[in-house]
Amino acid sequence: MKRIGIISDTHGQLRTEVLEALRGVDEIIHAGDVVGDEVLRELQRIAPVHAVRGNNDYGEWAMCLPKTQMLEHEGFTLYVLHILQEMDIAPGAAGVNIIISGHTHKPLIEEKGNILYINPGSCGPRRFSLPVSAVILEIESKNCIAHYIDLQDSAKNYSYTFALQSYNQIIRLYP
I need a labelling partner for 1 at 20 to 30 A (CA). Which of 24, 27, 67, 137 fits? Predict the structure, then answer.
């Protein structure tokens, strides 16, 4: 089983609760608005990091970050970007099973059209009354479980199970 920590919108702040939640993951996906390469260096101490550039990531260090990333894990194709509305692909036609975004600071785990959409929310400075949160994605075989983690109120934690759809594999094989 592969365990992937998913975070976004750290805005230069890495909370102790985030580091604890990410302990033991195989890799980390940061969906943008890192706001400082020191955040990425600290995350690299835990696990390999895949990060995309957010609208608040600028400067020389940020230019190394791609705007989007396509990742493969145990048959799942993940597409990572910061602002969902700026998606520049047709996810079904591209064989994408999971879309990971940030920007809104509003956590979301939702399945639409056999695609799992994940926004981990923000784990940096609190914005308005929105939660401070992250997601741990467990992938095994043709199933995954997205665990939403409210870093300040564990009573709000929940999990969502998502199965790889066979026709998505066919689309990928015959674009």
Answer: 67
